[in-house]
Amino acid sequence: MQVSRRTVLGSALAAGAAGAASSAGAAPRRAGRGTVERWGVQELTFHGPSGGNPFVDVNLTATFVSAAGTQIKVPGFYDGEGVYRIRFSPPEVGSWRWASESNAAALNGVSGSFDAVAPTAGNHGPVRVTRDGYHFEYADGTPFRQIGTTCYSWALQSDARCAETLATLKAAPFNKMRMLVFPNVESVATNPFVRTGPGLGEWDPSRFDPAYFRRYEDRLVRLGALGIQADVILFHPYDSKRGYSDMKRADDERYLRYVSARFGAYRHVWWSMANEYDAIESKKMADWDHLFEVLVAADPHDRLRSIHQIHTYYDARKPWITHASIQNGAAVLDDVRAELHRDFALKPVIFDEVVYEGNSTKRWGWLTGPEMVERFWYGLIGGTYVGHSETYNAARNADYSWLGQGGKLLGSSPPRLAFLRKIMEDGPVPGFEPIQPWWNYHLAGKPNAYFLRYFGADQPREWDVVLPGKGPDALQRYRADIIDTWNMTITPVEGVFAMSRKNDYDVHDPARPKLALPGRPYIAVRLVRV
Amino acid sequence: MQVSRRTVLGSALAAGAAGAASSAGAAPRRAGRGTVERWGVQELTFHGPSGGNPFVDVNLTATFVSAAGTQIKVPGFYDGEGVYRIRFSPPEVGSWRWASESNAAALNGVSGSFDAVAPTAGNHGPVRVTRDGYHFEYADGTPFRQIGTTCYSWALQSDARCAETLATLKAAPFNKMRMLVFPNVESVATNPFVRTGPGLGEWDPSRFDPAYFRRYEDRLVRLGALGIQADVILFHPYDSKRGYSDMKRADDERYLRYVSARFGAYRHVWWSMANEYDAIESKKMADWDHLFEVLVAADPHDRLRSIHQIHTYYDARKPWITHASIQNGAAVLDDVRAELHRDFALKPVIFDEVVYEGNSTKRWGWLTGPEMVERFWYGLIGGTYVGHSETYNAARNADYSWLGQGGKLLGSSPPRLAFLRKIMEDGPVPGFEPIQPWWNYHLAGKPNAYFLRYFGADQPREWDVVLPGKGPDALQRYRADIIDTWNMTITPVEGVFAMSRKNDYDVHDPARPKLALPGRPYIAVRLVRV
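^ inputs. structure came back:
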């Protein structure tokens, strides 16, 4: 670590605050000491060269060292008008020291220190994959029960529309938002790069427009303040006229490094390398693999990483993938179909696109509310997670719906997804495990402790209460609830089910072999050990 | 290529004949010129050192060069008593020349030539993956419609039992047999390695017993003569007492090279690296990957390669895997579940173990005949292939059943699988493709030409004849058959269905929107373009 010897604009900002630069100093000195929450954002601001092309010409990093000896090298980025920033989210409380390195003299060899303090309420840290490999939790161990939605270009809409979207989300059940960096539908913000002419394709891929990214960050940070994870989608195939996803490799690499340096310190950021990657004709599988390697190297915060397909599943076993992100509307119409994706990925699975609720004239956007909710439940029984969106709007054109631009939710699924989320939060930690899925029990939960059975559109009038389990551990007593997942009622069943051995594989209560059910669709039964 | 200068025992044997050596010559000379069928086995026999440990001490290869310039280097093997053999299956007709290389002077620099002639009837060459990536065909382009079975240790039983198994197979529908090299149940042949003492674990992994392998080859060749592919399983976890699957890495490598050199020239051989690989505790994933690399390098005939799991799916996208070999009894109870395995593997999928027909006291061996057949049909609709076996026997111990030892078939599924095979052979080339599986049509065949719908245990009395398809190509006329897959009847429906556009996605015949069905289980409907 070097001693301070250059001008510095040290500014420790609390997590969630956008990066406003302090005033410049003059002589070599150390940055002022500040504090930041653990998992918050410590932003350092510098003044440096503004001539030439700083995005290409200037490199800047800082190495952060904790009192415990943890050392993390963090890339910075150019924010225009001679301002450079480095954003770092400290994973440990305590004192941190840092020193910069740059090929620009004004940015090189600056140093400083700050203290990372205990997080305030509601800051649980970034979301990570659980030790068992199939679920998510925050860094402080709090389970994260994913209920996702998608508003592709919401952050690129007018201030009023963005405010409306955020107000909607505040009252909605969603805790993860899939959102594009580049616009896919009519948007207010459309120029991530500096324009070179009036045509859609006239822009300079080597010069970012900092205002575009500052605006995006503002939305990003507001989303985080609502406790919603931002699944930031880096490329998509829907804009061949502008061609932001058809850049040359060096431009793609620079873009990944830029967004990683700008956004990666925010603890609620996830990376989705692309939406429908296999519909981007200018990139082949080897390109995607390469871009993941670039992203891993560029992102010291090691945020969650995945990629979303249209036809050809990306191989989620590749080491840079943290969880599978799947588009498939039929896979979550059966818990075993869903569960198979875990067997292939050996990682958490999120069905990020399962066809949408709405009134689209296209089959990918005309689900009823019950059909949307059904997919979430089957996904849960399969030990996986599901994502929502909706296409409702007067024009029946999804571009102008929640899916495209955000705004208001018009569908009937969100309250039922809030109800589902509560069921999930009351359930096993870290998540619902499918129980012997290869034997078609259609049960999830935790063996010998918690069983959830879901009947989908079937309308059974009774259910044989047969639970898989061997040995004395299986001989438990359970109380039962009948859950109407659409009408959002939980009806306790009187008494308990006292399990005894039924055969080599199962237990049951000979005195109560069956449970009467209401003969309506979308019923679930929950059995919890007493 | 070198000129002949050593003693040689050249012997060109027709495909299917076991390798009997000719008498030895004396002075350096060329091997006599012979002929062999294309895709047959040209076996070269040599006399060389018998002292020391020839399995370890001596290496031997021959390089074969065709008139067209194809060059193939083929490893030989030691067959005991100073006899060495090299087996080569020529992929091209015409003249082939060869020359040997060895670290043993007596085996080095021998050369010869032979002619590969056109194959006789019934020799279609080895089975390969089709160009579309999801099916199988013989080298001459004939489709291979896999209907598999498993008799793990059949080839290790008495001559009488083996003859009984072969007689059974001659009348059975199966065209692929999964069979172990090492015994898993009570067997007559139990010593692939030279014994060093009376205990089960007392054997020398560096010395093969050639008699064991000659006996195995005899069975292998007889199986091939019936037109049945031999899916040779190289390791398995069921014999911890003998420990053949718990050898050291160098012993495993030597074993793979030995079986590859001995068996690999037979055109009907497939390699299954292991049965339930993940139940073999002495080997980890990296070991299996390594062993595949060894096998690829050892096998110039490039036979089909896969591996079979109990819990953890092996990643079938790995480059050395030619097709997925899956154990999962529930995955083939729904065509979409089956089809998902193709999406993950991007290769042909064979459900080699889907639970067995029989009277076992274990749930993995108590399917009824209809349940066994149902799995084959769902697998077909999913664009995949399925394997059979059965556990019937008086003791209800699967070890002594068809599954363990071969013998007689007692189940009710085989005639229905023969019926299914005929349906497959009359169907699209190279195989049945799932048609828009992600939209839950439950149809397979060939778009706008051939549709097969299967209803499983459902008993519908009618079916809406709605076919996916857009544009003028979809506006075809179809004749229909109602197929009773259990009673093995095909009932033609009078008249045709003349398709017109129904909506953006589907076509139907407004004059005949529905087809009446018999209200029995296990019904299929076949629509063929007229």
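Chain B touches chain A at residues 312-313, 315, 317, 328-331, 333-334, 336-337, 340-341, 343-344, 346, 361-363, 437-440, 504-505 (CB under 8 Å). The two ends of chain B are 57 Å apart (CA to CA).
thumbs up if we can close this ticket
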